[in-house]
UniProtKB/TrEMBL annotation:
InterPro entries: AglB_P1. It comes from the Archaea. Residues 9-82 form the Archaeal glycosylation protein B peripheral domain. Gene3D superfamilies: 2.60.40.3390. This is Uncharacterized membrane protein required for N-linked glycosylation-like protein. Pfam families: AglB_L1 (PF18079).
């Protein structure tokens, strides 16, 4: 069973698909992916400052580009826009 907490999510301007490599507290690796809506991604995972069992192992990356983003836990909780 997995339990998720509702968060506002950090907002990242961009188009396409964004991904983030993650690792669980059981050592399982997976990739979170999301397609943009109206030129924006609303992302639920921080890349730093996160004290939860699921941890990012790298930055968010817009697929097929070299564009990456670091996201603080406070940005995820407060709905902050990342430029």
């Amino acid at each position: 069973m997995k339990i998720f907490e509702y968060v506002k999510g950090a907002r990242i301007k961009g188009a396409g698909i964004i991904d983030l490599p993650l690792v669980t507290n059981q050592g399982r690796n997976f990739t979170y992916r999301q397609e943009s809506v109206n030129g924006e991604f609303v992302v639920p995972y921080a890349t730093s400052g996160n004290t939860y069992p699921v941890q990012a192992t790298g930055p968010y990356r817009i697929e097929n580009t070299s564009t990456t983003f670091e996201v603080q836990e406070s940005a995820v909780l407060n709905g902050t826009t990342i430029n």
